[in-house]
Amino acid sequence: MAASNERLISAREASRMLGIRLASLYAYVSRGQIRALPDPADPRARLYRRDDIEALLERKNRQSRPAAAAATALDWGMPVLTTRLSSIAGGRLAYRGRDTVALAETASLEEIAALLWDCEAVEFRGQIAKPVSSAGSPIDRAVAALAGELPTAAPAGPPTLRGQRAGRLIRIIAVAAADRWLADGPLHESIAATWQAPAAADVIRRALVLVADHELNASTFAARVAASTGAPLAHALVAGLVTLAGPAHGGATGRVSALLEEAARLGDGAAAVDARLRRGDDLPGFGHRLYPDGDPRAKALIAAFDIGSLERSVADAAETTTGLAPTIDFALVALERRFRLPRQAALALFATGRSVGWIAHALEQTRSGQLIRPRAMFTP
């Protein structure tokens, strides 16, 4: 999605706004803090995103006022901890410095787990009983299935043993979330087979890789907080799962499904988008604050299969009307609908894939030995 000309400024204007020399401006560009685009009127010149410059100024302003920086840190604000696991910069997501979209071309979730858990090899194996009840959401079932594992200590010892123990927990979550028995083998193939959608196996593989981690999102933060207290790994996973369930997080897949169902009833994606906006409702599955030019995970996943015409019409109408591009939530639901997967399969895949990241963050937090304990500011 191209930036409007009104939000692009010259190098001289950008430097003036920041109060710096041109050489310093280029340093910000090289670090990915300010994006530069070709000037259509002069191929030798570059234009700079005013939004990036305003955001940089705001960050500098917060840093000069420690109390203000602290007050906004937990609301898409300044980083509050360090990690070697994933990063979001310049519109790209990376796992341990490796581009996630590129990894999704060939990697399996098992390989991503080995990368994030720092293990040589990982398999999600073991005889796991299917949940007694199929009631509730994929997350409800996964939490219930983990109940029997709660006394399990956080994985320790050599990386091979760590991978085996953590891999079993991933399989427990996958079986419960999918609500089916899973055969041994690569997880994406097992899930596709049990859902009787073998044609979806490769797209499921990509989806699981793309959602495996996403820096310090709400569910990952919850998992890290639990791990920081010394809670066992299974407890940290439960914390991540129940946080993912919220409609402002992974539960957004349910809201996307409702939007697409409304479009199906109206028989027109544009009409559904217009109706939502006229009611003053937001558009679930569109626009991400960390990706002003569009969620690269959604773009990569949607490119991997033939999205349905209804889903395409909704996406096109949303982008034309609001300028917002699809998020991974929309892409997961489009995958669910395209391959006629079970209802809430999108959430099941999200929970299963993201569990790999929660384990990685819990292990990293445990190794740090730091208790996460923010302070509150009392206001009468």
List its salient traits.
380 residues, mainly alpha
Q: Helical percent range?
A: 40-55%
Distance between the termini: 45 Å
Strand/helix succession: EHHEEHHEEEHHHHHHHHHHHHHH
Unreliable stretches: none
The number of distinct β-strands equals 6
Alpha carbon gyration radius = 22 Å
Please report which band the strand proportion falls in: under 5%, 5-15%, 15-25%, 25-35%, 35-45% or over 45%. Answer: 5-15%
Which secondary-structure class do the elements indicate?
Answer: mainly alpha
Shape: globular
Mean pLDDT: 87
Number of helices: 18
Q: How can the largest sheet be summarized?
A: 3 strands, antiparallel
The side-by-side strand order for the widest beta sheet comes to 1-3-2
What does this structure look like?
The chain is mainly α. It contains 18 helices and six strands. The strands form two sheets. It has a three-stranded antiparallel sheet. A hairpin with a 2-residue loop joins strand 2 (36-39) and strand 3. Helix 12 (233-244) crosses helix 18. The longest helix has 24 residues, at 345-368. The protein starts with 7 loop residues before the first strand and ends in a 12-residue tail after the last helix.
Question: Layout of SSEs?
Answer:
Blueprint: E1 8-9, H1 11-18, H2 22-30, E2 36-39, E3 42-49, H3 50-63, H4 66-72, E4 86-89, E5 92-95, E6 98-99, H5 100-103, H6 109-117, H7 138-146, H8 159-178, H9 187-194, H10 201-210, H11 218-228, H12 233-244, H13 252-266, H14 269-278, H15 296-302, H16 309-322, H17 328-338, H18 345-368
Antiparallel strand pairs: 1-3, 2-3, 4-5, 5-6
